[in-house]
What we know:
The chain is mainly α. It has 2 helices and no strands.
Amino acid sequence: MATSHVSALQEKHAGLDAKIRAELNRPAPDTTTIQALKKKKLRIKEELTQA
């Protein structure tokens, strides 16, 4: 059960990373969106290190 939770967190982390890259590649990236995505990504990373 714990491994499926970790896998889900890893998938979310990778998905957020992809969203951040996509936003950065736009002609006019939205810094507020990028900042929010990075905060979510950091929370997930912290949860992964505790798991």
